[in-house]
Structure formats: C-alpha cells, structure tokens
Amino acid sequence: MTTATTTRHAAGVADAVKVYGSGDTAVRALDGVSVGFPAGRFTAIMGPSGSGKSTLMHCAAGLDTLTSGVAFIGDTPLSTLDDRRLTLLRRDRVGFVFQAFNLIPTLTVAENITLPLDLAGTKGSREWIDALVDVVGLRDRLHHRPAELSGGQQQRVAVARAFAGRPDVVFADEPTGNLDSRSGEEVLNLLGRAVRRMDRTVVMVTHDPVAAAHADEVVFLADGRLVDRMESPTADKVLDRMKAFDAKGGRS
Ligand SMILES: Nc1ncnc2c1ncn2[C@@H]1O[C@H](COP(=O)(O)OP(=O)(O)OP(=O)(O)O)[C@@H](O)[C@H]1O
Ligand SMILES: [Mg+2]
C-alpha cells in the first residue's frame, strides 16, 4: 500500500484472519484483510450481512483476537500486549459506540459522559469535556437520567462518552441502527464534527448508504475480504456499489 508511508494510521489490521469454531463448523469471518484507518479521518465499513464488518471492528479495537495476522492501535501491535496492558490500552486509547446505547441508567448524563475518566481515576480536561457537551448539544440535559432522554439524545451521550478520554480512535458499530433518520443524522453530523473540528478518528460500521456518505472514505468487505475502497462517498455511489454486491454474490 503506497499510502502507508505517508499516512499515519490510528488503527488497522494486516493479513487479518479470524476463524470462529473448528472442523466442519469453522467460519472464516476474516480471510486475509489488510486495512489501515487514517488518523484524523472518518472511515465507514460496509458490506453484506455476515461479511465480517463487526469482526473486523472488534479485532481492530482489541475486543477480540485474530486467529492470525496483526491488529494495531497507533504503532502498538495488540498481540504484544498481555491482558492487563490490553485493558489499559482499550481504556485509554479507544472509544466505543454501539447500536444499543449502553448507558448506565442510574447515572446522570454528565456522569455517563465522564464515566471512562472516573473509572480510569483521571479527571481529564475540563475544557475538553465542556467542548464535547456543547458539540453534542446536551448542556440542558446534563442532570437527567438516560430514561428521560430520546433515543437520539441517548446516543449523543454515548458519543460524548466515547470521546471523553480523547482516545486515538472511536469505533462505532451501527450507531444509527436504532434511530429514526433525523436522530441518526444528528449522530452522524456529530461524528463528522468530532473528526473535522476536533481532529478525532472515527471508524464506523453501517448498512446505510446515507450514513456511509458522512465518512471521508468507505471500505467494502465481502466474504471476509476487503473488496473495494471509495473516497468521498455519496449515498448514490455507495448504493450502486452495494447493488453490485447483490448482483454478483458479494464479489466485484
Ligand atoms: N462468535 C461467533 N461464533 C461463530 N461465528 C461467528 C461469531 N461471530 C460472528 N460469526 C460469523 O462470522 C461471520 C462474520 O460475522 P460478523 O458479525 O463480523 O458480520 P457482519 O458483517 O458484522 O454482519 P451484520 O451486518 O449482520 O452485523 C458470520 O458468518 C458470522 O455468522
Ligand atoms: Mg455486524
């Protein structure tokens, strides 16, 4: 990859293979994927159901381990870390947003946002948290509990929480999957703003071409392989690419 020498990658995998199970029932969820996620950019991962998107994200984020190949965060190959170091790296350098918002119901919005910092026993930067609260537009909801918020508002809390510790990279697995299109659009705008205005790195799995169009680049998986990349995606271009998968059984 010629860009590798000039582009700093916040995370990525090289020759990634992930096999679930063994023998007759083994599933090769990743079949030799090499992809870097450039720092300061918003990358979307797309592909048919079962193509390995979540597996790629989980392995790149250190939530799961590869069968072979390397996953890295910054310059750190995850396989060189013992469990304790991996836990610390995930805590300090990686943020997550999931389809189900996964907020703590008994904590307020403010407490949910600073939870990763509180768990780490650090205060973080007050200015940073303050700026985040404004970016996600939750200033007037800080003392509410998640049950008192709409789905879109809850996901915005989850986004703020993911960025609270200024991680190197935030991974989001279908963050708009449970939202109506307007709330989804707000969350996507938020992720885009974090990348463009706050110099963050986001990697997002999505099924939705409109969501993918918010990214700087889309990488396409099919049958556990990287089959295409698209710079400056539009919803129409992404939709056309997805149709080609359907027509050709996944392969381009
Ligand atoms: N824990 C597991 N045990 C066994 N097989 C698994 C496991 N997790 C995923 N798989 C299989 O690995 C393949 C890739 O799954 P993965 O969840 O990465 O797909 P995906 O692209 O995220 O799909 P979707 O769009 O439906 O979320 C699928 O065939 C899936 O059944
Ligand atoms: Mg998935």
Biggest sheet record: 6 strands, mixed
CATH class: Alpha Beta
Q: Helical percent range?
A: 25-40%
Oligomeric state of this protein: single chain
Our Rg estimate from Cα atoms comes to: 18 Å
For CATH, the homologous superfamily is named as: P-loop containing nucleotide triphosphate hydrolases
How many structural domains? Answer: 1
CATH fold name = Rossmann fold
Spatially, the strands of the biggest sheet line up as 6-7-8-3-9-10
The percentage of residues in β strands lies in: 25-35%
**In DSSP terms, counting alpha (H) and pi (I) runs of 4 or more, how many helices?**
8
The best one-word shape is: globular
Structural class: alpha/beta
Q: Stretches where pLDDT falls below 50 for ≥5 residues? A: none
Q: What is the ordering of alpha helices and beta strands?
A: EEEHEEHEHHHEHEHEEH
First-to-last CA distance: 20 Å
Mean pLDDT equals: 92
Number of distinct beta strands: 10
CATH architecture: 3-Layer(aba) Sandwich
